[in-house]
Backbone:
């Protein structure tokens, strides 16, 4: 099974808003990104970043090839299954967004061999970003399910044309997601699409 995620943005905010803590409960740290040598570098290069880190003492800095990809991969002993009520969160830091391709970063979390090559993107902005991957964001390839134990993860980013992009990744969590509020809009007013929808998307809601 291959699980791939991203949400295409309607807007491109300077900074992506993180998921409020009261919306995410029972968090379990899956990986702290404390040592780049624990990761296999498939494209680009990787190093420890002791300057920009969210938790612990450092993060893993991924540098793309010139105008190309940066990709790291890691295998582990049966990371937790996502099940029906779990989400995945990964912090990543961008110092200079102009060095990166206009798309974003790419995450794959899977239990068996890689099946389909699929690209999906997420917001990015300078500074710390929280990549929040909910149940509805995954695309499942093969006959597996979210109840399977996962044992591999692959993370990829792309440099802008002729440049080397740099992203530091830190603190990957599995969390139980429980919505605290529900927003609803009635009467099909055009302002829901023209005003409310862009505001909600800007805040990753």
Residues:
């Amino acid at each position: 099974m291959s699980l791939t995620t991203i949400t295409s943005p309607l807007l491109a905010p300077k900074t992506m808003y993180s998921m409020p803590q009261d919306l995410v409960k029972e968090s379990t740290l899956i990986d702290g990104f404390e040592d780049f040598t624990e990761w296999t570098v498939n494209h680009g290069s990787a190093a420890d970043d002791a300057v920009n880190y969210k938790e612990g003492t450092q993060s893993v800095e991924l540098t793309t090839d010139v105008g190309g990809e940066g990709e790291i991969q890691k295998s582990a002993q049966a990371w937790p299954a996502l099940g029906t009520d779990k989400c995945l969160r990964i912090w990543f830091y961008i110092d200079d967004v102009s060095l990166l391709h206009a798309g974003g970063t790419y995450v794959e979390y899977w239990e068996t061999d890689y099946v389909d090559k699929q690209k999906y993107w997420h917001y990015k902005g300078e500074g710390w970003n929280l990549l929040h991957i909910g149940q509805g964001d995954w695309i499942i390839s093969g006959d597996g399910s979210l109840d399977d134990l996962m044992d591999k993860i692959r993370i990829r980013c792309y440099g802008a044309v002729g440049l080397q992009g740099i992203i530091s990744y830190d603190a990957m969590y599995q969390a139980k997601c429980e919505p605290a509020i529900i927003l609803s809009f009635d009467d099909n007013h055009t302002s829901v699409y023209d005003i409310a929808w862009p505001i909600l998307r800007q805040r990753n809601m």
About this structure: The mean pLDDT is 75. The first strand starts at residue 2 and ends at 5. Residues 108 and 187 are 39 Å apart (CA to CA).
